[in-house]
Amino acid sequence: MDYLFFTLFVCLTCTFSGPLAAADNGAPSPPAEKPLIVPKPVTPATAPTLPKELEDDSNGGDSRFLSELLNMVTSLGLIVAAMFGVAWILKRMMAQRMEQANVTSSIKILERRVLTPKSVVYLIEVEGKRILIGESHTGMTKLTDL
Fold first, then answer.
1. pLDDT digits (tens, 9 = 90+) for 28-52
2. How far is CA 133 from CA 11, 41, 107, 110, 137, in A?
């Protein structure tokens, strides 16, 4: 990394020193020979090293991957289980709410049957009379008195 900055510094210095020096005395100067920069040979002592997190340990390099994978799958399983748990609780709460509404109201929904995704049949009780009502995307229709 130090070699890169040093090379960049030398290139910028050589690029800008030539035109500036020529502008000072008014006469163009012959191009100066650039010194040859020879990088030092890389030895094990001067070789760049990886951080410990990125090093490949030969006796169990896959163990970290497997532990991370297991951690991710466990977290995903917990999230999915929590979603199913919340859905089950909400379904129970809605059923209890429907039962409580039927107890206190004079209009009671006795049964609900889904025929198609967009049509439902309700059996309701209004003041002791049972009525069958159909609901679809076009509206609600009284089917019959029971």
1. 666 667 777 777 777 776 777 766 6
2. 87, 90, 13, 12, 14
